Amino acid sequence: MKRLGVNIDHVATVRNARGEVHPDPLKAAIFVKKKGADSITIHLREDRRHIRDLDAKKICSIKKLNVNLEISTNNNIVKNALKIKPKYICIVPENRSEITTEGGLNLLDNKKKIKKIILKFKKKKIRTSLFINPKIKDIKLSKEIGADCVEIHTGHFANLIKSKKKFSNELMNIKKCSILATKIGIEVHAGHGLDYKSTKILSKIKEIKEFNIGHFIIGESIFFGLTNVIKKLKKIIKN
Length: 239
Ligand code: PXP
Fold this sequence. Notes:
binds pyridoxine-5'-phosphate, 50% helix, TIM Barrel
């Protein structure tokens, strides 16, 4: 059964725009779970531009929520995450000037550092995932450094579809990586830039077990509401 992870970072973006308390990310986390989200994703960025430490702490303290905390390899962020103790961790690259996470991790250059971080979370029985580009060498490296899961960066794929360009090569890359990862015992997730159309195409890859979707869900909910958008996505990933 494929799972839907709902990224609620942009609920915090709207809240922060006013510097007040509404809309509350904690309330959003509980609400999306009620509406069918299998997990909740939050990204504690180094600049705290959306989710803040207190949000992460409160959301992760609710035991019934399966929280996937995205973090960079920054030492302070890792320390915070170990204290916050989410159920799942996804390590992502982070660059201050980017609007959103622009690509997967550079595993080759950061092998030692990431391996050490993974070990720290494993000791606390926290499932660890690495956000990577759809490249065979990154799947092999993920295994070598001990990741439980990989999340394949689907941003390029999603952009090709949005701009009505040929996407078969990128789809094949994602498929090949998903097959290899599954074969060597790594669970496969997918995320970034996904909407109904791109999710529908990727849902045909049986090896992808989890989709993490944020911006589209929050944006589309302005018109159709979280309940309807989550329901529609759940239906898409089930088929
Ligand atoms: N997965 C990861 C690892 C991410 O960093 C992000 C963006 O924060 C997402 C999924 C969600 O991407 P989007 O908001 O484009 O759906």
